[in-house]
Amino acid sequence: MCQKHETPLHPSFVPYRLAASYIREQLQSSTTEAQLPVLGIICGSGLSGLSSALTNTTMIPYESIPGFPKKCTVMGHKGEIVFGLLSGVPCVCFRGRFHWYEGHPMNTVVLPVHVMRSLGVKVLIVTNAAGGLNGKFNVGDIVNIMDHFALPMLGGMNPLVGPNDDELGPRFPPTSNAYDSNFQNLVLEASSNLGLSDFVRTNGMYCFVSGPQYESKAECKFLLQAGGDAVGMSTVPEIVAAHHCGIKIMCLSLITNKVVMPYDGDDDGEKSNHASHEEVLDAVNKRSEQVQGLVKEIARLLEHDGVLKGLPDLPPINLDVGRVMISQESSISGNDVSIVPNEKKTRAASFCPFRIMKGILNAPAHCVVIGGAMITIGALFGATMGRRK
Question: How many helices (H) and strands (E) would you count in the chain?
Answer without folding.
Answer: 9, 15
